[in-house]
């Protein structure tokens, strides 16, 4: 091999070493970013879980309110009927 061949080989090896160094640095940055995004995803999943539970509780409360409103309407109707009967009774006297 000639001296020039060794120079070319040395240059290529230096380039490969630099390239590997860049790739390692990029890999480390990507791992760090991946870890950061994984943490964000975990936090968002927790928030979603909390909001889902709150939505379910809200549906339960809405159903209870609807039940109370229905019961209130039935009571109101019964009271109105009783008042009408009392008024009719008073007319008879």
Strand content: under 5%
- Count of runs of 4 or more consecutive helical residues: 1
User: What level of helicity do the residues show?
Assistant: over 70%
Q: What does the average pLDDT come to?
A: 96
How far is it from the N-terminal to the C-terminal residue, by CA? Answer: 133 Å
Report the biggest beta sheet as strand number plus sense, adding barrel if it closes. none
Helix and strand succession? H
- Bulk shape: rod-shaped
Q: What Rg, in angstroms, do the CA atoms define?
A: 39 Å
User: How many strands?
Assistant: 0
- Structural class, from secondary structure content? mainly alpha
Model description:
There is one protein chain. The protein is mostly helical. It is 97% helix and 0% strand. The protein is built from one helix and no strands. It has one helix spanning 3-92. It is rod-shaped. The model has no long low-confidence stretch (mean pLDDT 96).
Please describe the structure with a list of short key phrases separated by commas or semicolons.
0% strand; 1 helix; single chain; mainly alpha; 93 residues
Précis, in short:
Helix content is 97%, strand content 0%.
Topology readout:
Elements (H helix, E strand, L loop, with lengths): L2 H90 L1
């Amino acid at each position: 091999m000639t001296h020039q061949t060794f120079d070319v080989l040395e240059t290529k090896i230096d380039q490969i070493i630099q390239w590997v160094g860049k790739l390692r640095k990029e890999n480390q940055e990507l791992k760090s970013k991946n870890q950061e995004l994984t943490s964000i995803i975990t936090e968002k999943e927790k928030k979603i879980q909390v909001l889902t539970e709150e939505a379910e509780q809200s549906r339960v409360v809405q159903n209870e309110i609807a039940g109370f409103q229905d019961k209130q309407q039935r009571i109101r109707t019964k009271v109105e009927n009783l008042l009408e009967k009392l008024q009719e009774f008073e007319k008879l006297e």
